[in-house]
Specification:
alpha/beta; 7-stranded parallel sheet; 5-stranded parallel sheet; 14 helices
Length: about 325
């Protein structure tokens, strides 16, 4: 089937490549950033499609207003997750939801690897100490990654890319994913295991899953209690997969020797727990930089535009529906 997309509303900042590609295929584009919900509900009725990143929430109210107005057909996320889009409401109203699952994989992977390295060698506090005029060479002794075991929870694109790179550092990579096959895991050098077998073996744990009910607080106090003393935890996926209070408690007790976070349940962080986590001396914290590279921004911008054009059927050059989340809507 094809969808008639004449005009698109961009609600969050995306690379100009997205606008240029859409316009070159006869699609009108308006950019209106940081719209409050009531304003978005009012204007969405005038557009066939909406593009967001992570800042704008496409709620059931927004989808209902757009769909009942008779125009809204597609909501696209220039990024991997769709937790800021009410997919259930979209499906109910026949609105296609799509994302760009591969666009920022390498950037998120590389940040994960860098954070693992920063936990092994405390370069962040050491650099700050030196900038402040101190020579604390003995204070910032670290550990080699060679020979350590990295547990990767979620073996999709990002998880497998992390494994490939950290194997080059001499790490043993083990992992869990209910969907990825043993053959796919093995191709990336990962020993696929069940979760209960993973926890006691891990020197480092990194999560690369979506935030769904089954993964919320996947790394918890109970989980960490099964780990070897001194385990380190990295979350560049979604806030809420790792229980922040449990990590703070584990850092204080010594069960956890360090943690790195790029994502939080609320962004910007406001809760006392998240602020305490960020301020902890054994935590490396970054402000959701996983996809913040020049290359990823261009890649996701082009990818979301290509999928929009593919849905219209206007160009045989673009035929991918790889990011469509609710594919059943296309069959309706």
């Amino acid at each position: 089937m094809s969808i008639d997309i004449k005009n698109v509303l961009i609600c969050d900042a995306v690379d100009k490549a997205c606008v240029e590609l859409l316009q070159s295929n006869g699609i009108s584009v308006d950019t209106k950033l940081k719209l409050p919900v009531n304003e978005l509900v009012r204007v969405v009725k005038d557009y066939n499609a909406v593009i967001v990143r992570s800042d704008t929430k496409i709620t059931a109210e927004v989808i209902k207003a757009g769909a009942e107005g008779g125009k809204l057909k597609v909501v696209g996320r220039a990024g991997a997750g769709v937790d800021n889009i009410d997919v259930t409401a979209a499906t109910q109203h026949g609105v296609v939801v799509l994302n760009t699952p591969g666009g920022n994989s390498i950037s998120a992977c590389e940040l994960t690897c860098l954070l693992i390295g920063a936990l092994a060698r405390p370069i962040v506090p050491a650099a700050q100490s030196l900038k402040e005029g101190r020579w604390d060479r003995k204070l910032y002794s670290g550990f080699e990654l060679y020979g350590k075991t990295l547990a990767i929870i979620g073996l999709g694109r990002i998880g497998r890319e992390v494994a490939i790179r950290m194997k080059a550092w001499g790490m043993r990579t083990i992992g869990y994913d209910p969907i990825t096959t043993e053959e796919e895991a093995r191709a990336a050098g990962i020993e696929k295991m069940e979760l209960d077998s993973i926890w006691p073996l891990a020197d480092y744990i990194t999560v690369h899953t979506p935030l769904i009910p089954q993964t919320r607080n996947l790394i918890s106090g109970q989980t960490l209690a099964k780990c070897k003393r001194g385990v380190k935890v990295v979350n560049v996926a979604r806030g809420g997969i790792v229980d922040e209070q449990a990590v703070i408690d584990a850092l204080e007790s010594g069960i956890c020797a360090g943690a790195a976070f790029d994502v939080y349940p609320e962004e910007p962080p406001k809760s006392a727990v998240t602020k305490a986590l960020i301020a902890h001396p054994k935590v490396v914290a970054t402000p959701h930089l996983g996809a913040s590279t020049a290359e990823a921004q261009v890649r996701v911008a082009i990818e979301v535009a290509e999928q929009f054009i593919a849905l219209t059927g206007k160009s045989q050059k673009y035929t991918t529906y790889a990011g469509v989340i609710n594919k059943d809507v296309l069959k309706a």
